[in-house]
Amino acid sequence: MKTTTTLLFAALIGFASYCCAALFDREVSFTEAEIQAALTKSGPQTKNYGWMSVSLLEIPKIMLGTPEGKVGIVARIHISLLGNPAVPVDITGNAGIRYDDTSKAFFLEKPVVQTVESLSIPKEAEPSARQAANNLISAYFKSKPLYVLRDDGSPQEATARWLLKSVRIEPGKAVATLSAF
After folding, report:
1. In 10 A of CB 155, how many CB atoms?
2. Do the beta carbons of residue 28 and residue 176 sit within 8 Å?
3. Residues of the chain with pLDDT > 70: what percent?
4. Does domain 25-178 have CATH number 3.40.30.10?
5. Element holding 38 (H helix, E strand)
6. pLDDT tens across 124-179, in order?
7. Angle at 76 between CA 70 and CA 77, to 5 degrees
8. Hey, what's the signal peptide range on this chain (predicted)?
């Protein structure tokens, strides 16, 4: 009887703790527009491979939740082979999102270029172009946060700086879940 009462009491305490934790959870979100504004501050990026140069001269377009649960990327890069004039190449890709506790910032995680489209690049060169585009996009987003939690931001942001629980991507926004515990 004592064992059953003790187990019941422990279960009730655990359930109450879970309910209290859920009660104090908050969410902070940031939108595609806020991400695009942050990326606007970034300059162009170029990578040289000796025989090929790949440049990102315009800010990539970010689409949160396209595809579902991911970050969609659309960009135009310029590829120059063996010193020839650069040709524009349209790329699409996707990535996840990660939070870096040290910088209190959100970054793209493992961006992958899926399509490479250009009338000027022969089909047999597309795999090399895709790999070069992948390297450029990865390098570009590695050091450029999508969003940084500010000390002078909203009370929820100030709380998020210390108590981030999880991040999820929804159509048009990313949502960070915070916990008081």
Report:
1. 9
2. yes
3. 77
4. no
5. helix 32-40
6. 888 888 998 999 999 889 888 888 876 666 666 555 555 677 888 999 999 888 77
7. 110
8. 1-21
Contact 92, 115 (CB under 8 A): yes
Residue 173 in tokens: 């926004």
Burial of 84 (0-12, 13-18, 19+ CB in 10 A): exposed
Distance CA 166, CA 28 (A): 11
Report the distance separating Cα 18 and Cα 26, nearest Å: 15
Residues 82-129: tens digit of each pLDDT: 878 999 999 999 999 988 878 888 899 999 999 999 888 888 888 888
Gap between the Cα atoms of 32 and 28, Å rounded: 14
What are the domain boundaries of the chain? 25-178
Q: Which of 49, 166, 164, 157 is nearest to 97 (CA)?
A: 166
